[in-house]
Amino acid sequence: MELLYNSTRDAKVAVTASQAILKGLAGDGGLFIPERIPKLDVSMEALGAMSYQETAYEVMKLFLTDFTEEELKHCIQSAYDEKFDTEEIAPIREADGAYYLELFHGATIAFKDMALSILPHLLTTSAKKNQVKNEIVILTATSGDTGKAALAGFADVPGTKIIVFYPKNGVSPIQEKQMVTQKGDNTFVVGIHGNFDDAQTGVKKIFGDTALAEEMNAAGFQFSSANSINIGRLVPQVVYYVYAYAKMLAKGILSEGETLNVTVPTGNFGNILAAYFAKQMGVPLGKLICASNDNKVLFDFFETGVYDRNREFLLTTSPSMDILISSNLERLIYLIAGSDAEKNVQLMKSLNTEGRYEITDEMRAKLNDFAGGFATEAEVAAEIHEVYEKTGYVLDTHTAVASKVSRDYRKNSGDDAKIVIASTASPYKFTRSVMNAIDSKYDAMGDFELVDELSKIAKTAVPNAIEEIRTAPVRHDTVVEKDEMKAIVKKFLGLA
Ligand SMILES: *Cc1c(COP(=O)(O)O)cnc(C)c1O
Question: Model pTM?
Answer without folding.
Answer: 0.92
